[in-house]
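Narrative of activities, Objective 1.

The group set out to show that a structural description can be obtained from nothing but a protein's sequence at a throughput compatible with the screening campaign. Below is one input-output pair from the validation batch, recorded exactly as produced.
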Amino acid sequence: MKHPTSILITGGSSGIGAGLAVEYAGPGIVLHLGGRAVDRLETVAAQCRAAGAEVHIRIVDVTDAEATRVWLLAADDVTPLDLVVANAGISAGTSGQAGGESEDQVRAVFATNVDGVLNTVLPILPRMKARGGGQIALVASLAGYRGMPGAPSYCGSKAAVKVFGEALRGTLHATGVRVSVVCPGYVRSPMTAVNEFPMPFLMDLDKAARIIRRGLERDKPRIAFPWPMALAVTLLQAIPPAWIDPLLRRLPGKTSSGAGTP
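Output recorded for this entry:
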């Protein structure tokens, strides 16, 4: 399988997006990095340029469908995109909020984590299908395997991304466009830094980026890690809700604000 040389990553200013940019950076690689924080984007771009990559940055909010579409197509005009990583996302939960999440919070999480993914993926699909190739990576989360009372909108939004990506893979199989869903556990990033509860199997960013890259190179349908936590949430799905709900209600709530992508 052809290794990607033209790559676009949303949420490229921090977390997994930044880690993947640095992981892929090298001579002959063209990176298009989008994000909302210009200083952090410039810092990541400098690291990637030092590794020999050609880097283009764009200040863009993925909830703005038209701005995201314009950026995607302009990047594809520069060098046809081999890999698009729909990574931008935000985190939120119920910690400190009596009665659960506010309507504004829920809508903001879904706007970024679900609409943002659609705004990234849909504009480029016609071009990739016309070329008969290309790869899409949708960053979901192990949190999307089962709804947790401490983070309803986050779990729900990531579940939507996971299932959409899995279905899209089968839909696009005959076109030559490959789709993989990335389901990380806890990865050191600005998003997890605000969590005030134990995070089992917390993984360093560079290791997570290597796992994702290897998975994409192998065209894995689902890249879920770390494996002990992936196994645990898979088994959790098999337990009847009436049995497990009382336990889950005792878990600490996720912080009500966050940044980056898990």
